[in-house]
Amino acid sequence: METTEREHVIEVTDLRRVYGGGFEAVRGIDFSVRRGEIFALLGTNGAGKTSTVELLEGLAAPAGGRVRVLGHDPYTERGAVRHRTGVMLQEGGFPSELTVAETARMWAGCVSDARPTREVLTMVGLESKTDVRVKQLSGGQRRRLDLALALLGDPEVLFLDEPTTGLDAEGRHDTWELVSALRDAGTTVLLTTHYLEEAESLADRLAIMHDGRIAVTGTPAQVTATEPSRITFDLPDGYFLGDLPPLGELGVSDHTVDGRTVRLRTRELQRSATGLLLWARDAGVELRRLDVRSASLEEAFLTIARDASAPRADGTTTQEYAV
Ligand SMILES: Nc1ncnc2c1ncn2[C@@H]1O[C@H](COP(=O)(O)OP(=O)(O)OP(=O)(O)O)[C@@H](O)[C@H]1O
């Protein structure tokens, strides 16, 4: 079955992976990725991200469940999928004596209708390193070479396992721009990352894995919204906590006081902040060191990593947002 523009190009249903010895690294996960979407798989160390991506790449057969990439089983129908996908493994292995250009040419020989090697090396910023031997590249430059090789076949679907690990801040931003541009040109990207700001700024949707399961799936904004926002300020001189309007009426879910510093947590940031500021205006006081902020993806991640094993009130451990 071929996919159309609006269909999911990656579909994962109740997927399981069991290693020799019986360890279940992937324990029944579901997600899907639409054409032209960047989907990030996040999770703690050992959560099962690489084990999952390898199943999507057709490198191993699932112990249970179903994977479809571009409408095909990537393991049993490898020939139908492989030439339409690009893969950047977590650790690429290159012959260290070859130069960058030789490595790209060797790889291009394995790809049908390969892009010109100079083109992909320029895309990843390695055009000035073509005559350098692979063993002389820095770790970050090797990651870029990995990415260049994944792009050689002009893939419809790109699997990137920790694409920016080892890159400096500039290299990471360059890679983000390149991946965004590929997405804008219609490439579907599934990536794993430990950099939460990478997922926050790049991903259209993401899933957070923990212990072989997906704890939450949604847009970065949806996942971040699972955490309360925070308001911090110093109580004005001569005022006490009891002088503020009743915090429950401001939508504040809990608070702490440390000396004169008050920290409020709220799921209704606008209502809480407005109520507080109107009170301060009417009282004619200044809320010094006022700081109002939404939760970050990092806070949501840490909470999920901590709580993911605990069942929710409805008995499930997975939260999924429709988009
Ligand atoms: N070949 C293997 N044999 C047995 N267990 C394995 C094998 N490969 C991975 N595992 C185990 O499966 C679990 C998931 O590993 P995986 O590499 O998929 O996690 P990950 O989320 O990619 O982790 P990281 O962020 O550290 O790269 C881990 O507990 C790991 O020890």
From TrEMBL:
Q: What GO molecular-function term can you cite, just one? A: ATP binding
Give the UniProt subcellular location, in the record's own words: Cell membrane
What is the name of the protein in this document?
ABC transporter ATP-binding protein
A Pfam family per the record: ABC_tran
Q: Which residues form the ABC transporter domain?
A: 10-236
The record lists the lineage as:
Bacteria, Bacillati, Actinomycetota, Actinomycetes, Kitasatosporales
The primary site where this protein sits is membrane
Q: Print the keywords alphabetically.
A: Antibiotic resistance, ATP-binding, Nucleotide-binding, Transport
Does the keyword section mention Metal-binding? no
